[in-house]
């Protein structure tokens, strides 16, 4: 599916995360000079909060990408299903049970997809099909009504601000650091990277490719579950049409973060940075009162520009 | 004995409001003795257009159509095709576009201009009651390109002209809490000390905005007045007074009255020109014997923002709780 | 019989089975106007699927078609005062040009088109919103009758559905019997191999993307004229339907394999299914579940058949070795 | 006729070609030789328009031409057979013959292409093939011959063949040679890249040697000896290519009793002792590789039994064989031997992740130790450790592909084509490393179609033909002739 020739030219040595940071810095400077109220510390927290939930899913998505499985198109639908199930389970069994069962179901959904991906060999088609099924199941199990929960613990999870920082941002920061650490320092992380770099060589080296796909799918599912649970908790309710049309947001974050779609390269931190970068730009445009159309155009151009830039910097153009 | 089939075109029951609409239409149809068939398109106008084609091609004789276009203006072509079949067409939910009067029998449903106006009244009322000075504020809108959002904004702006200062009209990404929160959480801190009110077009967005306001140290109902104007889902923000108030916009009754309008037309055989705001009586639903007007509007009775007011609110024999929490 | 013919026959069988199962419960599936309506319902996704299918054969994928169609829709309605045919021609040419530009960037950057077109998908949608002033644009109602001829039926065909069928035949011929078409297959089947053999990479990529964009533009313009209006938010769901049609129709995601006629088969398979379930009055999630299940069924069947043929080939290689 | 002069080319900071000259006359076959990574393929790719040159001129018949794309090259009359297969599997054989040929007109039908392709297919001995069948239905060797047919169809004035025979067996090589001779006889100028010495002396009139990106003036083949040639390529004399054999071998470690697997037509029985190097000699498709794949758990053992150190051995999949310390290195390192986009250390520790981690966490200290040990054992210099594996030369890539297994303390190493596409210098290093490992007690089985390699490296030789084991002998009892006879029994029978 990729159009690159397999060529190995000299790489620019600066880590790609550095470009993300530089881009964020440049945008910050430009924005703070031109936008009153932008450079305030609390606005930075606002931006991180805005990036949090998308970012958490993007971090999960980066596992899929790095493991060589391109991307999944089922994240938003799975989010709706998990939100509905979390609400149902919490209403019936209480918050703790709801939380753990939802995470468990998320992992199961991830595993089911990974088995299908391993059998069929194509993550995009597989998740496309699973996405329609998940959305259907979400509608079915919600009975087309708004599901409300009443749980102090859930409300805390959704609205508390330990040390003045929203739980969502905490979750985002922890997820980013944790998943970076896993990819970098865990054995399974190395396996994910290697399987993405060359699945056939991974098999020949006795690496557990099936397990890697399963972990990657589970990581995405857990990210999606966190997003779903936090959203439901924040507003104490769930609906089957949650997160409609969000899939490209997650993928855009991964791409803006500069993770190569071919797999085997990049870290989840880049996806997190990508999400922050997009949120930063959105915030900047929102504060400038740009219309929705203009905002969307600019985000699209940002995606194009950043992927092109990463690409050219690596000397892969023609 | 069935009096025939009524075909209802709606976006998708994945949206609970539309689920309620279907329920209302179904119950009224059963009462009137019609069969009902609901065709859903999952928020996709071209799909709905081809469903209309398919339906017309089936050659089925139907008692009438209820038409809820996903994209109001984009659905005009299909509306016209339905009208050419000869069966009565009741348009619902999406206020018909000027110039299309020939394509439909009657409109029976909510009035988004009215909804905006009611919201404005609730807001002005709340400001007056609290003796607070409301001037600058913002409208947090439905996604760009959604006509209901345009209509509500127009209704609201007309009603507050000269009284409030609208500084910002910001489209969200959607209709739901999380999408509203994302916008409100960025707008409110950026305009801190400046915003005195927010109109969010529905209560889902309003609840999210109230949360964002609180997180920014503003007390909704004191430092900032927030109104959504259509009760929807979570009533806790209304009952607690965080939202300045709400109005009952019932999907159930909208579907019900669309079906009633069709029944009226079949029985009465005529449409009276002009508009009719159906009376928002607490107990009895409007009679089937009332005349059918070209425009029949669902009442939007306002509900004050207290537990007591909420518990007392009723429309046509159903409580606010039944109508808003689905 | 080649394996490709066999697989196309199997797909045809699947399509007929879906048709018959639903026809048993929906009388209009047998009637002339019913079939005409089914054909009509396939126009949008069909025209777009032909273009997307071509990019998939080239080993790429144009994700921007939905936004492109919406953009074309707005543009064509805005150009309506100049006459429908000129508007259509201008829009299709303009979209084709945009597509060629997109193809050129993808070639020049040597970048994955799925990455690149996610960017253009977002940017074009934004541009569409800007161009439409974030409002649905309409043909004046006094002129709406001028577009009636697009809905008129000749036997079971309308002008749009006839256009779809003609386009399928044309593009199928183009892809099978011309140098440029074969180049698209070649670079999809093996990019590096084709290049080493002297096949230009630039031309087929630009051709595939400009056809895909031009067809998306055509679909958007035709449909908008037929309904007399265009919404800046329209055509969002068409990409998934088009890609699903291609996949069910046997176009390999890896590129190089499949046929445009197969796309037509895949397209009608889902149209029969989705229209049928909607016509039965079932809620939306049933359509969703059924489409997902069909897609999973087809890909699993494909994987199984692929496995068996590989085994056979290996066995044959052993006996002839 | 063709003259390339002062050709310069860099990939990023690495200079691959500096000031290279090359000239070929019509009707002449010119061998282009050099170690792996000398820049041969890069040079011919520039000529074929695949890669742009950074400097230098190319002239044909005295006129300077500019070649910026494969299309330009074709227009200039240059035909090219790439080192890697350039056959599109999903297209028909006929289309592959005419792939990239724009002279046939805009409209084309499958039938007419097939008709036109047939004569060319016949010339390379593929008359039994249906031109309408898909390329993927044919063997690698047949596909390689289709490429030669393409070259013939181009009516090229200058033909480039980059290691065309690397994947072919003797009979097919004969056909390629015949085709090359015909082309030359027709007045075509031919550049022939190869690592196979016999072909050079058999086929070519001149040899141009590349070393470290620099070219040496062409010399007449007739006046050359193998020793001279090797010296020119390496810039030094190659002392002893093969290390001395083992003095003695230990007890039996592995035994196959009447084993069958996919790729084998008759049951195979053989045994292996500790510290022994066993060669499975055979041409492509002989079944030599099939035995290795069976032992590696890639293909299941269909019947018979395998005994490893006295216990039963029936690996289920590759992980099963790795668990028993029976390790397999395939013949296609790009495909499944290395992780091209990851660094050399990451490649070397890939199969040993468990050994270099504690409680699921990678230990940098353990990993570093592991990597340096292998690098030392396999002669991989410090400077390679910072690089991506894909940026190494073929020989070093092969060292990485082989070396990554050493860290696992293997009992048996299975190597398929240990030095395919590896230059003489690296080759001799790899041989001595393998021998050293064997002397330390490792048992090695390798499959190879290179007679010299089999004779030089192995203690014992099992020859294979058409999926059957022909015989097993001590290496001392085998000569080049007897081995060639064993592995090509068909030509005798026919
Ligand atoms: N696309 C590329 N990017 C970076 N370096 C490259 C690329 N292609 C080749 N190289 C490097 O250029 C050098 C010359 O490679 P080339 O393929 O020309 O060698 P060769 O003489 O053909 O070797 P072999 O005998 O293995 O085919 C090698 O060091 C190789 O690693
Ligand atoms: N990975 C594999 N799994 C199953 N069968 C295979 C595999 N690779 C090759 N085969 C089959 O085994 C047969 C012999 O394979 P191949 O042509 O590679 O010869 P070989 O035994 O490897 O000989 P050599 O490597 O010595 O040339 C072929 O018919 C092929 O279909
Ligand atoms: Mg080479
Ligand atoms: Mg082999």
What would you note in describing this structure?
The complex is a heterotetramer of chains A (318), B (326), C (321) and D (494). With 318 residues, chain A is mostly helical. Chain A is built from 13 helices and two strands. Chain A has helices spanning 16-34, 41-66, 75-93, 95-120, 123-142, 152-159, 167-185, 187-197, 199-204, 209-235, 247-256, 268-287, 292-313, and strands at residues 147-148, 237-238. In chain B, the strands form four sheets. In chain B, strands 2-1-3-4-5-12-11 form a seven-stranded parallel sheet, sandwiched between helices. Chain B is built from eleven helices and 15 strands. In chain B, α1 (16-32) packs parallel to α9 (251-268), α4 (112-130) crosses α5 and α6 (177-190) packs across α7 (203-215). By secondary structure, chain B is α/β, with parallel strands linked by helices. In chain B, 65% of the residues are buried. Chain C has helices at residues 3-23, 32-41, 43-57, 65-78, 84-109, 113-131, 159-177, 179-189, 191-196, 202-227, 238-248, 260-279, 284-320, and strands spanning 137-138, 153-154, 157-158, 229-230. Chain C has 321 residues and is an all-alpha fold. Helix content of chain C is 73%, strand content 2%. In chain C, α4 runs antiparallel to α5 (84-109), α7 (159-177) packs across α8 (179-189) and α12 (260-279) packs antiparallel against α13. Chain D has 494 residues and is of the alpha/beta class. Chain D is built from 18 helices and 23 strands. In chain D, strands 3, 6, 7, 8, 9, 10 and 11 form a seven-stranded mixed sheet that branches. In chain D, α15 (424-439) links the parallel β20 and β21. The longest helix of chain D is centred in the middle third of the chain and has 16 residues, at 170-185. The structure holds adenosine-5'-triphosphate (ATP) (2 copies) and magnesium ion (MG) (2 copies). One magnesium ion is lined by residues 289, 331, 416 of chain D.
Largest sheet descriptor of chain C: 2 strands, antiparallel
What is the rounded distance between the termini of chain C? Answer: 24 Å
Share of residues in helices of chain C: over 70%
Globally, the shape of chain C reads globular
Could you give a short account of the major beta sheet of chain B? 7 strands, parallel
Instruction: Using a beta-carbon cutoff below 8 angstroms, give the protein chain pair with the largest interface and the number of residues from each chain.
Output: A-C, 56 and 58 residues
User: What structural class do helix, strand and pairing data of chain C support?
Assistant: mainly alpha
Low-pLDDT stretches of chain B = none
Topology of this structure?
The complex is a heterotetramer of chains A (318), B (326), C (321) and D (494).
Chain A: H1 16-34, H2 41-66, H3 75-93, H4 95-120, H5 123-142, E1 147-148, H6 152-159, H7 167-185, H8 187-197, H9 199-204, H10 209-235, E2 237-238, H11 247-256, H12 268-287, H13 292-313
Antiparallel strand pairs in A: 1-2
Chain B: E1 5-10, H1 16-32, E2 35-40, H2 45-57, E3 64-67, H3 76-84, E4 89-91, E5 106-109, H4 112-130, E6 136-141, H5 147-160, E7 165-171, H6 177-190, E8 197-199, H7 203-215, E9 225-227, H8 236-239, E10 246-247, H9 251-268, E11 272-277, E12 293-297, E13 302-303, H10 307-312, E14 314-315, E15 318-319, H11 320-324
Parallel strand pairs in B: 1-2, 1-3, 3-4, 4-5, 5-12, 6-7, 6-8, 8-9, 11-12
Antiparallel strand pairs in B: 10-13, 14-15
Chain D: E1 2-11, E2 14-24, E3 29-33, H1 40-47, E4 55-60, E5 63-65, H2 70-75, E6 78-81, H3 93-97, H4 110-123, H5 140-153, E7 158-162, H6 170-185, E8 189-193, H7 197-203, E9 206-211, E10 214-215, E11 219-220, H8 226-234, E12 252-260, E13 268-273, E14 277-281, H9 288-295, E15 303-308, E16 311-312, H10 317-323, E17 326-329, H11 333-337, H12 344-349, E18 357-358, E19 361-362, H13 364-377, H14 394-406, E20 412-416, H15 424-439, E21 443-448, H16 451-457, E22 460-465, E23 468-474, H17 480-487, H18 489-493
Parallel strand pairs in D: 3-8, 3-9, 6-7, 7-8, 14-21, 14-22, 17-20, 20-21
Antiparallel strand pairs in D: 1-2, 1-4, 4-5, 9-10, 9-11, 12-13, 12-15, 15-16, 18-19, 22-23
Helix pairs in contact in D: 4-5, 5-6
